[in-house]
């Protein structure tokens, strides 16, 4: 978006320059009646620039809030381990100290399977049992809040083995 804004800002400066030149010519001859319209155009362009800057600031604030929210949803700990009583593997997470209430699920991205866990807030352990073992499988943890899904963690089994 910043590149688009720089392009627009460059065009904005060019338009204002053209309006100023036209305004100077209008003062010198019979086109003085154009002066109010040129001033209105100049003011419109200035208002547009102010609005875009305000919008950009709002977007930055919203992006920061979303980043902070994702950090809160991200698990504090992630484990993938063999559970002898099941003779299978378990994927376990523990939410952080500031985690909001959310429903969690773990997805095996390699095999395209979903294992729902449950809802919890701060410092909650959740797990999915009966998983197969392949060190190259890639898993993602998805948090669901108010019907919106957020991928908060992604890694391969070989990197998270405990």
Describe what is shown at a glance.
This protein has 162 residues and is an alpha+beta fold.
3D structure, described in words:
With 162 residues, the chain is of the alpha+beta class. It folds into 2 domains: 2-71; 74-160, Sandwich (Immunoglobulin-like). The chain is 43% helix and 33% strand. The chain contains 3 helices and 7 strands. It has helices spanning 2-28, 35-73, 157-160, and strands spanning 77-83, 88-94, 102-108, 113-120, 125-131, 138-145, 148-156. Strands 4-3-6-7 form a 4-stranded antiparallel beta sheet. A 3-stranded antiparallel beta sheet has the order 1-2-5, with no helix packed on it. α1 runs antiparallel to α2 (35-73). It is rod-shaped, with a radius of gyration of 28 Å. The two termini are 42 Å apart.
Mean pLDDT: 88
**Can you tell me the CATH topology of the largest domain?**
Immunoglobulin-like
CATH class of the largest domain: Mainly Beta
| Alpha-carbon distance between the two ends | 42 Å
| Run of helices and strands | HHEEEEEEEH
DSSP E strands, number: 7
Strand order of the largest sheet: 4-3-6-7
Tally of domains: 2
Radius of gyration, in angstroms, nearest whole number: 28 Å
Main sheet characteristics: 4 strands, antiparallel
Please state the second-level CATH architecture of the largest domain: Sandwich
Low-confidence stretches: none
Number of helices: 3
| Bulk shape | rod-shaped
Helix vs. strand class = alpha+beta
InterPro entries: Enterotoxin_cmpnt
Protein name: Hemolysin BL-binding component HblA
Organism: Bacillus thuringiensis Bt18247
């Amino acid at each position: 978006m910043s590149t688009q804004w720089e392009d627009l800002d460059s065009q904005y400066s060019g338009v204002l320059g053209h309006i100023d030149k036209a305004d100077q010519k209008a003062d010198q001859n019979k086109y003085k009646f154009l002066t109010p319209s040129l001033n209105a155009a100049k003011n419109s362009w200035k208002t547009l620039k102010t609005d875009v800057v305000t919008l950009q600031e709002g977007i930055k604030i919203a992006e920061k809030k979303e980043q902070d929210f994702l950090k809160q949803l991200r698990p504090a700990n992630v484990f993938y381990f063999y559970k002898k009583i099941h003779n299978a593997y378990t994927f376990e997470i523990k939410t952080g100290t500031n985690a909001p209430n959310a429903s969690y699920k773990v997805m095996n991205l390699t095999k395209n399977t979903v294992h729902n866990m449950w809802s919890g807030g701060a410092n909650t352990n959740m797990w999915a049992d009966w998983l197969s073992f392949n060190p190259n499988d890639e898993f993602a943890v998805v948090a669901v809040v108010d019907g919106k899904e957020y991928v908060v963690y992604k890694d391969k089994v070989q990197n998270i083995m405990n």
